[in-house]
Amino acid sequence: MARTKRHPDNVIVGEQGRIVLPARLRQELGLKAGDELMARVVDGQLILEELDHALHRVQDSVRAEHGGKSLVDELIAERRRETRKEKEELLQHPPGKYGDQR
To answer: Residue ranges of the domains in the chain?
Structure first.
């Protein structure tokens, strides 16, 4: 999906709020009937964005807020630490013969 500098296309808002994207724009973006877009307003501009692009944008934003670290990787590492700690505690204080508590 290459960015090109062309003259903007005008679109008309229909009575029910529908707009038709010009064929040239649909072709340039590889959009076809039934594709879903995310719509949002930024600084008074209507932004239409493919869902996978929006998802990557949000993921990149969250990653940047957390110093480039993956929250999933951090959660997995935390669970591994907790599991390791639980195993160490069990080795130091094993349950009784019938599984009773310490």
So the answer is: 23-92
